[in-house]
User: Fold this.
Amino acid sequence: MQNLQADYTIERFIETCHEHRLKITPQRVAVYKALVRSDRHPSADMIFQTVKKDFPNISYDTVNRTLLTLAGIGMIDIVEVFGGPKRFDANRKDHHHLHCTKCGEIIDFEYREYANLSVPKEIAEKFQVTGKRVVLKGRCNMCQPKH
Assistant:
């Protein structure tokens, strides 16, 4: 991520924390920065391993609670996973995911037709849809059998 974008993202992070009356702690900022800098949809443990390099006394619980809090206020997303630990995504633009069922890799992609899917009337009448994401499952290039 470019520095200009990273600065804007941190600015927005601070504004959103203030809006939700969350303290801006160095640990909370470090957790968010580690997520923003990752392109792998990391788990709480992956973020913990990154952040503890600069904050050796930080606990896994602090990292996990921070990620869940940020998801709860809409700053980040919890990614759809199938049987594994929760994964997190700081990319708030409309996008979809390819999920490798062998290695667990989650890859972002954009496809306008998926973003423009209409919600069936019977669902829209019973449920307020606040977002749409398509998840395609299969095997990535690295995990496909070689012939």
Q: What stands out?
A: Residues 93-138 form a domain with the Dna Ligase; domain 1 fold (CATH 3.30.1490.190). Strands lie at 77-79, 87-89, 96-100, 106-109, 135-138. The chain has two domains: 3-87, 93-138. The first strand starts at residue 77 and ends at 79.
